[in-house]
Amino acid sequence: MAITRCPNGHFYDPETNDSCPWCAVPAGNFDGTRRAFPETAAVPDPGATVKINPQNQPKGAPGQSAIDEGHTVAVFKKKTGIDPVVGWLVCIDGPDRGRDYRIRSEKNVVGRSDTMDICIRGDETISRSDHAFIVHDPKKNVFRIQAGLSRGLIYLNGEEVIASEKLNAYDRIEMGESTFLFVPFCGENFQWETKKDS
């Protein structure tokens, strides 16, 4: 695999891209072509088995505790022992029309990235991260929507969300080129109970 450097200093593979995918500068050996690796790697035998030393096994691997030491656990999840669904966003218009997105207790971050709590991949006009926050307050059993940290705007029933607004059943939420209906599961008829101490 040959790697080429564009005039702006970006590296890319000219066999895969006709021009720099970062700045669209046409292919050319600005600073010469370099190999990414000096030698060709050997292809492993597909039938070979690999023995993993238990000390080198990733955390959460089979036989180990699944607790992620650096991961924050929601208060509700810690009290109940579960992270249950408390509602849904249902896309009624846009690239992901017909798809539903689960809302969990406490703060849910909305964006296109897989790291978001609510990942809306199909609409590229929704920010990759922090486009909006959907919040379920388990103490008051209410839902709110908050403007995110990104550039994109959010509309609740046609009105721009500037700070934080209460969500009611079947409210319309517009983000990017998509429209969603808010469908609560928890409310006056049902609420998850915390587990009892024995």
TrEMBL record:
This is Type III secretion system (T3SS) inner membrane Yop/YscD-like protein. Pfam families: FHA. Residues 108-161 form the FHA domain.
